[in-house]
Specification:
The chain is mainly α. It is built from 14 helices and two strands; from the N terminus they run ααββαααααααααααα.
Length: about 300
């Protein structure tokens, strides 16, 4: 048997590849596939207190999607809010980081990697420390409100700066900007400058060159940044819990509560599955739209 396996290994490149990848595959299966499957199976159960009925049922999904009940209304509202906040975070993060990546890729001639490192140094600190820093900046007695009051632009603190959806969007934009900067820079840095020069020689302005040449060629980096930011921020629960308040709560906070103090694993698992499939659907739509946009450009 060992000799047969040895001959198969020696004659098959696929066998060598799978053997080399087997530790990583086992880690992915145990660390990702098994928990997702367990969550999916738990979503079809019924829990009353500490008792779990494992008889398959779709009641938890009906409870989530039934907007005629208080629970369904809250959960669907939180899901819609989570997707909306993630869209805003993704849009504004790319909008603010694209010019930075563009400048480093096209105007910095030496030590580009050093520039990238210097711009990402603030993100080497703890994520929680950066969130608490934004609490100090956006709070009623924080830097922004204190400055506005001191110069006489307002008589009282701007309450909507903290514990709102705005504070969640601002904090998440800052937290994920480094993850958008890297794929954007790599995509822009790989663009052949001769194509840009050819566009200018043909009479295109700088703006037309950017729209027709630079931006279409950088779309792979834009798509990568969109996916890197959108997918994790939908499920972020730390930032909404610390700076969101009641107005900035997201579905992930409710899922955390279901698995924690509420002790309703079944509904929490169903909520997580619905959020997972919502992210998959949105990702497919974004991928389709970007492909069509690429073809038109």
């Amino acid at each position: 048997m060992f000799q047969v396996w040895q001959k198969f290994y020696a004659s098959s490149d696929n066998a060598k590849a799978y053997i080399l990848l087997s530790p990583a595959l086992i880690l992915v299966i145990l660390g990702m596939a098994v928990p997702v499957f367990a969550m999916f199976a738990m979503s079809f159960t019924t829990q009353a207190g500490f008792e779990i009925d494992y008889s398959p049922t779709f009641d938890r999904y009906r409870e989530f999607l039934d907007t005629g009940t208080r629970t369904g209304t809250i959960l669907t509202t939180l899901l819609s809010r989570s997707i909306t906040i993630s869209f805003l975070v993704t849009f504004f993060t790319i909008l603010t980081t694209y010019p930075v990546a563009y400048y480093v890729a096209f105007y910095v001639k030496k030590n580009k990697i050093l520039w990238i490192i210097l711009m990402t140094i603030p993100f080497w600190t703890s994520y929680l420390l950066r969130v608490f820093a934004w609490k100090l900046i956006l709070g009623n007695s924080g830097v922004i409100n204190a400055s506005l009051i001191s110069v006489g632009l307002t008589d009282e603190p701007l309450s909507y700066l903290m514990y709102s959806q705005l504070s969640v969007v601002i904090t998440l934009c800052h937290a994920w900007s480094a993850f958008a900067l890297l794929p954007l820079f790599v995509s822009l840095d790989k663009i052949d400058h001769s194509l840009i020069e050819a566009s200018r020689d043909l009479g295109c302005s700088k703006f037309e060159t950017f729209i027709r040449v630079t931006f279409p060629l950088s779309l792979p980096g834009v798509i990568g940044a969109i996916l890197i930011i959108f997918i994790p921020t939908v499920g972020d629960f730390v930032t909404p819990a610390l700076v969101g308040g009641t107005e900035g709560r997201m579905l992930s906070n409710m899922i955390q509560a279901y698995f924690g103090r509420v002790n309703n694993f079944s509904l929490g698992a169903a909520s997580a599955v619905i959020m997972l499939f919502s992210v998959i659907v949105v990702t497919i739509i974004v991928n389709f739209v970007t492909k069509r946009l690429t073809q038109r450009l």
